[in-house]
Specification:
- The protein is of the alpha/beta class.
- It has one domain: Glutaredoxin (3-Layer(aba) Sandwich).
- It has five helices and eight strands; from the N terminus they run H-E-E-E-E-H-E-H-E-H-E-E-H.
- The strands form two sheets. The protein has a six-stranded mixed sheet.
- The termini are far apart.
- The N terminus is likely disordered.
């Protein structure tokens, strides 16, 4: 499975996916379940994040565009500190040791969910890395981007802000 996903990642690179893409309205139907353990073994269920806007990002440490996108996600998280906003990253089929080493290398503190068997990848219909979804406070996917984006640029920040509950803006 990892070789197939790596092939898609390389294909995305070849097609210019390293250039930032815009968030697009999501037209893929209902939000799939997302119930996975994090690096520390704690179970996370996307439904438990109701009331918060959630950026769900599918990635892998061996994916160059994924690695390039992470710093802008960190800056977005800093810009929205104190707001009901969460980043959940979903790593595909790597060991906790590989992911932990990467997080230390780039100084990130996101919640990383481990999709060891690719079940979430299939349920969310992810076919290339990185793929990201913005989920609103009611748990509905509102935007998606297939490829990288600069999460801390004005357009992306504005789309996150528009999804925040009115009483927190």
């Amino acid at each position: 499975m990892r070789k197939i996903v790596l092939g898609f990642c390389c294909l995305m690179l070849a097609l210019g996916a390293v250039q930032a893409r815009e968030l697009q309205p999501y037209r893929g139907g209902a939000t799939p379940p997302l119930v996975l353990h994090d690096l520390n073994g704690k179970l996370h269920d996307l439904q438990d994040y109701r009331g918060r806007v959630v950026l769900v990002n599918f990635w892998a440490t061996w994916c160059p565009p994924c690695r390039a996108e992470m710093p802008s996600m960190r800056r977005l998280n800093e810009k929205l500190a104190g707001k009901p906003f969460t980043i959940l990253t979903v790593d595909m089929a790597e060991t906790p040791q590989e992911v932990s080493a990467f997080l230390k290398e780039v100084n990130l503190d996101f919640t990383v969910l481990m999709d060891r068997d690719g079940k979430a990848l299939k349920q969310w219909k992810v076919f290339a890395f990185p793929t990201s979804f913005l989920v609103d406070a009611e748990g509905k996917i509102r935007y998606a981007v297939f490829g990288t984006t600069e999460w801390d640029e004005a357009e992306a920040v504005a789309k996150v802000n528009e999804l925040l509950p009115a009483e927190t803006k």
